């Protein structure tokens, strides 16, 4: 145990003493990116697609990878490491491209994407979700994700304690710390929460693509306004995106524990366990497996008109009833 603690202390010391080098940061970010991609692709494989335990493990891996990326970025920011090299150049570029019309638009958008605006949109979205889905599980999920994102952003600001850009260039008043951007964290969490609830309803791929594009556009626009108004550095915006996505990914983990939780979130009936008789057995041993709906299974297994008479004496007849499907022999 003491050896493990010494190893942890040594790693933290190395991070602090070599924070200006690219080696640790590049390896951490590279491994994190690979784990995130793997956590998305591997559970989609055919042999694991319906395995809740696989989804749970890889969802946890995804959260850990995103958290590691956020930590390494926070360490780099607190020590002005090499990852902050583009901050000044980006800041200067936005200063030289200011325009009165753009300033008015940026102030309006940053107000909508601020704490009050995001809170209002979140409350409205929760009401709509609760009404349309006849339940408050989806609404509670959205409210919880945004609330956790706000809290995590405030705590991270206190931990990193990064100063904002110079006061003279700010177009809106801000008096707290800079990293990560609270506006970007909140809007990312809100967009991700709504996208998560929408995706669990199993829409078409085209609709998913449109929803993802819309979410990315909204987050990018709010992030650009924070840079334009001179209240954040580039790494503040990137950190806000990572933190918001991390919170959404963490919220996905409980959904992998049971299919009933996902069903309550989406407002759809949970899978119904049914009993299917194994043919060729005198005792008719019964095996159970979940299906999306018992009625759909009955329709798929019902013989067609031309074969119904021929199969009546050979196969059991499947009869739907409120709790599932029972098997009986046709006389």
TrEMBL record:
InterPro entries on file: PAP2/HPO, PAP2/HPO_sf
Q: Which PANTHER family match?
A: AT30094P, SPHINGOSINE-1-PHOSPHATE PHOSPHOHYDROLASE
Lineage, top-rank taxon, reads Bacteria
Please name the SUPFAM superfamilies in this protein's record: Acid phosphatase/Vanadium-dependent haloperoxidase
Record-linked Pfam families: PAP2 (PF01569)
Give the residues annotated as coiled coil.
Answer: none
This one is known as: Phosphatase PAP2 family protein
UniProtKB keywords: Membrane, Transmembrane, Transmembrane helix
Q: Where is the Phosphatidic acid phosphatase type 2/haloperoxidase domain?
A: 138-252
**Which positions, given as ranges, span the membrane?**
24-42, 63-84, 104-129, 136-160, 180-201, 208-231, 237-257
Q: Which species does this protein come from?
A: Nocardia bovistercoris
């Amino acid at each position: 145990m003491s050896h493990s603690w010494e190893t942890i202390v040594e790693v933290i010391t190395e991070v602090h003493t070599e924070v200006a080098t690219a080696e640790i940061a590049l390896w951490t970010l590279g491994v994190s990116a690979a784990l995130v991609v793997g956590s998305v692709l591997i559970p989609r494989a055919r042999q694991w697609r319906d395995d809740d335990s696989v989804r749970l493990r890889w969802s946890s891996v995804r959260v850990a990878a995103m958290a590691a990326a956020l930590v390494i970025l926070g360490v780099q920011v607190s020590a002005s490491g090499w990852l902050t090299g583009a901050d000044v150049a980006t800041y200067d570029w936005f200063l030289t491209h200011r325009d009165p019309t753009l300033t008015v638009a940026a102030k309006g958008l940053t107000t909508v994407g601020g704490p009050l605006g995001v809170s209002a949109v979140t409350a409205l979205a929760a009401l709509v979700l609760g009404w349309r889905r006849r339940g408050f599980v989806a609404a509670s999920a959205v409210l919880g994700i945004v609330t956790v994102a706000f809290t995590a952003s405030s705590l991270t600001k206190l931990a990193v304690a990064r100063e904002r850009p110079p006061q003279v260039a700010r177009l809106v008043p801000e008096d707290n710390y800079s990293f990560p951007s609270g506006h970007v964290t909140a809007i990312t969490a809100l967009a991700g929460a709504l996208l998560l609830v929408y995706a669990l309803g199993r829409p078409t791929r085209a609709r998913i693509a449109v929803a993802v594009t819309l979410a990315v556009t909204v987050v990018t626009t709010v992030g650009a306004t924070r840079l334009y108004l001179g209240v954040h550095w580039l790494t503040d915006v990137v950190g806000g995106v990572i933190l918001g996505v991390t919170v959404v990914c963490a919220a996905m983990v409980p959904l992998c524990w049971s299919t009933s939780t996902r069903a309550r979130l989406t407002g759809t009936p949970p899978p119904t366990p049914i009993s299917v008789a194994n043919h060729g057995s005198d005792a008719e041993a019964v095996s159970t497996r979940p299906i999306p709906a018992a009625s759909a299974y009955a329709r798929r297994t019902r013989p067609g008109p031309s074969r119904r008479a021929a199969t009546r004496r050979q196969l059991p007849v499947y009869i739907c009833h409120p709790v599932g499907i029972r098997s009986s022999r046709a006389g």
